[in-house]
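Hello again, I could really use a second opinion on something today. I've been staring at a protein lately and its backbone has me curious. Can you walk me through what the tokens say about the fold? Take your time with it, there's no hurry, and the full record follows here:
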Amino acid sequence: MLMNRIEKAAINNPARRALQRLYEVPTLLKLAGGPLPPGAKAAELGCGPGYGTRLILDLFGAAHVDAVDLDPYMITRARRRLASQKHRVRLAVGDATDLSTAFGAPDGAYDAVFDFAIIHHIPDWRSALAEAARVLKPGGVFVFEEVTAHALARPTYRRLFDHPTEDRFSADQFLEQLPRHGLAVRGSLTRIQGDYLLGVAVRAD
């Protein structure tokens, strides 16, 4: 589901970028146990304007990132932001539930898959989780931060942003789906007021 005009503005806001760089990514790096191994190849579900993609390269240390977004406008912005890294990044307009169409991604193609608060935008969110697990190598990591149904039910979210209204997940429902796709949570999780969930899961061997 595409973001509306207000949410696009929020995503492109310097305050949002600062929060991602100064809090979210450091938290996820700690949960992941540090950067990715040398030469790691990563996929990003819903790259938006490419700021998260740059953090995957710079802070997580990915050697290459394939990043997909449903919105051509966001892909255009990401291409501009990542122009100096085009030898390390592939960008495509496409569906996060089908990376084989976007990139020809076979099973076990990536060392890491990143979800920077995108899966809650996807009506069939379980398929997005299944796709993340499919393209991960055994031992690969699924790095996620998500917005739960508890947050989406708040008046501010409902008034300002557009999200799917059916089958939204709680934190527990999201976590319950992970082992069904061979993903096991690594270490602890970060939960913020029942609204947000940050964690890392490992693809089973």
About this structure: The chain has a mean pLDDT of 95. The CA atoms of residues 39 and 112 lie 11 Å apart. The longest strand covers residues 136-147. The two ends are 32 Å apart (CA to CA).
